[in-house]
Amino acid sequence: MHTLAAKMGFALRHNVIEAHGLCPECVEVEACRYPGECGHDHSVLVKKKPR
């Protein structure tokens, strides 16, 4: 990262790499459009950042 920044004319001070994801079951629950009729456990809420 530092080398790439230097080649572009920048002095990189800090870099942060983040990874976010959900397990397969949680992906299915998050994508659910019918929470009252599906049978999924919607008791755990996923925080979403405002866009």
From TrEMBL:
Record organism: Salmonella enterica subsp. arizonae
Phylogenetic placement of the source organism: Bacteria, Pseudomonadati, Pseudomonadota, Gammaproteobacteria, Enterobacterales
InterPro entries documented for this protein: Fur_C
Gene: zur_2
Protein name (Swiss-Prot/TrEMBL): Zinc uptake regulation protein
